[in-house]
Structures are given as structure tokens and as C-alpha cells.
Amino acid sequence: MERVRRTLLRETAHQVIRDAIVRGDLAPGSVVRDADLAEELGLSRAPVRAALARLADEGLIETKPQSHTRVTPLLSRDVRDAAAVVRAMHELAARTAVPLLTGADCAAMAAANDRFATAARAGDVDAALRADDELHDVLVRACGNRAVAATIDRYTPLIRRLERLRFSAAAGQQSVALHDRLIAACRARDAAAATAVTTEIWRELEDLAD
């Protein structure tokens, strides 16, 4: 039981610190110290160090021995690389999932897009990005490919940092329209069309990096 508790603490520390980086609470280039983070989170240093090591592997933290540990700078090259990988995974998810979707799945996507549209109009970036994740997660779950899900989970935070900085109501409305086309293709069980729209959605994020 003790091992489970420690693992959960490590996972929780990872999630909290990752969210803080994505939101910009820990800004690109800012120095982080495990002791300070541990005190702020009410944890020992061990799970925080484990979380920072994982975040370094994910590209959100960089460490220079005998120098510093800091949040990685926001570089267009890194965002484009991550967006290309995430796009490929979502394309695979769409191709695989569309023939398997139920009416309830399509309804869930439409409801998520409604929430996205409402949040975008209100300028609520957190709610908009959360709804966007919920919409695309329907396809990711339906495809049943754990490697796809894990890869998306790993690389999406690198993109989200830039999305938050560049988010606008106008861009949000464009995304609503793309989502509508994606949902229509899913309802028609047209995997090729759904994949093509998915490509369009995620290529926009690659272009955003420029």
C-alpha cells in the first residue's frame, strides 16, 4: 500500500506542475527548484523530483547539471514537431474510430463543441481547451489504441502552451466550424473525410507555431 501511495503522489505532482507550465503560471525560461515546489505543494522532495524528471523527458523542463532546472523556452520548432506527431496520432484515431462510433459518441462530440463555442465566445480559454480535448478524446477512446492515447497525452502540453497565448474568439469560431465538419463526417461514417478534417485542424496548430 505504501508503494501505491508514493506512486500516486508522483503522478499528482507531475499533473499539477505540468498544468502550471501549460497555463503559464510557471513561465517559459523560469527557474524551478524542487524544494520550493515541494513546499508549495505540501509534498516531500522525492515525488517532485520524479515529476520534474518525467517533465524533462516530455520536453517541458530542462536541466543543466551544476547550473539550473528551468521551464523550457517556447520554441516554434518544438511546437511544430509536437504538433506534427499529435496530428499523426489524431489522424490514426479518426481512421480507426469512425467505423466504430455510436450515435452517443457523435452526440458527445456535438455537446463538447457546443461547450467549446460558448467558452470561445466568452474568452474562457481554460473551458475552451478542455472542451476541445473532450471532443477529440471521443475518437481517441473509440479507436482503442493505447499507444495513440499515450503519445497524444505526452506531446499535447507542448502545443497547449502556445495555444493559450494565441487563443482568440475569432480563431475559436473557426475551430467550431471545423469541429462541425468533423462531426458531420463521423455521423456519416466517412472515415476518409473525418481524417481529412482532422489533418486540417492540426495543421493549423503547426502553422500557429510560425
UniProtKB/TrEMBL annotation:
InterPro entries assigned to the protein according to its UniProt record, in alphabetical order: GntR_C, TF_FadR/GntR_C, Tscrpt_reg_HTH_GntR, WH-like_DNA-bd_sf, WH_DNA-bd_sf
Gene Ontology MF terms in the entry: DNA binding
SMART domains named in the record: FCD, HTH_GNTR
Keyword Transcription regulation listed: yes
Keyword Oxidoreductase included in the entry's annotation: no
Record-annotated HTH gntR-type domain positions: 7-74
Pfam families the record matches: FCD (PF07729), GntR (PF00392)
Keywords attached to this entry: DNA-binding, Transcription, Transcription regulation
Descriptive protein name: DNA-binding GntR family transcriptional regulator
Organism lineage string: Bacteria, Bacillati, Actinomycetota, Actinomycetes, Pseudonocardiales
